[in-house]
Every structure is written in C-alpha cells, then in structure tokens.
Design a protein that fits this description.
The protein is about 80% helix and about 0% strand. It has about 210 residues and is mainly alpha-helical.
Length: about 210
C-alpha cells in the first residue's frame, strides 16, 4: 500500500508540473497542499481523519479546491459561479465519507479512531448525511435566485429521487448494508455533476 501511495503521488506530481506551468504558483500551492492533506488524512502524528476533521477536509479538497482549481487553470481566475458550483460538489463528496464512516462507526470507535461519525453517533451521522444532501440540492436554487447561475442548473433536481432513496437507506440500515448507499452516493455525485454541467451548457447555448 505504501509503495502504491508513493507511485500515485509521483504520477500526480508529474502531471502537476504541467498544470503548475499553465496555472502558475496558485496551482502549485493547491497541488502541494492536496498531497500533504492526503498524507496527513490517516498518517503523521495527527491524522485528522481520525480526529473528526476528515469531513471538513474532504469538502475543502474534493469540493472547493478541485472545482475552483480546475476552473482557475482554464480561465486564469475563479468566478462566483465556479465557487458556487464547488459548494454542492464538495457537499456530496463529504456525504460519501459520512456514509463510509457511519458504516465503520463501531470498528472505528473500538480502534480509537474518533471520526465525526464516532463523535456524533450513528444517528447524528445520519442527520449529517441528510443535511449535506439537502444543502447540495438547495444550492442550485440559491445560486439561481441570487443571479449567480442560470436556471439551467435546476436540472440537477432530476436526480433528487435518487438522493431521497439513499437518504432513506442510510436511515434504515447500518454496517455492511450501507455499502449500497456508499456506492450509490458516489454515483449520485457523478449524475449531479453531469446534470449541473448540462444545465450550464444548455443555458449558454440558449443565450
């Protein structure tokens, strides 16, 4: 696993050289911070994933850094829409780790891993999951009402029934059966992102 980790980091660093050349020092800083965060998530003297901070860092790096950083490389700046898009993507990414930690809450507690799910308890983690999903689906409406995004982003609501399905499953099960919700939440984020992008593209063509 250690060898695989360094191999992946090495490939990422090589690809990052080109991205840093295109995007300059901000991308270099984001890339370095991302690699450092990945190492410190479960390693080092203070693995923050085991101290209730994993959810926050997933939101920051799989949401804000990933979306805003990608936009910056291509546009040279980060727009309000890019930041607004990063928020629901980060919320759904965080929902994935919440399901993972909820599934493992008993074994993590026994091993002394104080994830946020362990700190909140199973029911608290379930409500965290539901809140993240609800906020992700409220975000496009808020962006549209604020005039930041076109109405096309409301196309994400097409995937809402799938989201409700996984929320209901998370509240109804525990342990290994949550693997279905774990995979389903990952698929939901992909579908949501595709619908969000389609809404932006459709609005641009219509305009």
């Amino acid at each position: 696993v250690l060898a695989g980790m360094w191999l992946v980091f090495g490939i990422a660093a090589l690809l990052g050289v080109y991205l840093a050349w295109v995007g300059g020092w901000p991308i270099l800083a984001v890339g370095a911070a991302s690699i450092l965060a990945a190492i410190l998530y479960t390693g080092g003297p203070f693995p923050f994933g085991y101290y209730g901070l994993g959810d926050l860092f997933v939101f920051l790096f799989f949401g804000l850094a990933a979306v805003a950083g990608t936009y910056y490389v291509q546009a040279g700046a980060v727009s309000a829409l890019a930041w607004g898009t990063a928020v629901p993507i980060g919320l759904l990414a965080t929902a994935i780790i919440v399901v993972n930690n909820l599934r493992d809450v008993d074994t993590d507690r026994a091993a002394g891993k104080h994830t946020l799910a362990v700190r909140l308890g199973p029911q608290g983690a379930r409500w965290e999951y539901a809140g993240l999903i609800a906020a992700a689906y409220a975000a496009p409406l808020g962006l549209w009402l604020a005039g930041v995004a076109p109405g096309g982003v409301l196309l994400t609501l097409v995937s809402l029934p799938r989201a409700v399905l996984w929320v209901r499953l998370v509240f109804a099960t525990s342990g290994r059966p949550l693997n279905a919700a774990l995979a389903g939440t990952g698929q939901l984020e992909l579908l949501y992102a595709l619908l969000f992008a389609a809404g932006l593209i459709t609005a641009r063509w219509a305009g």
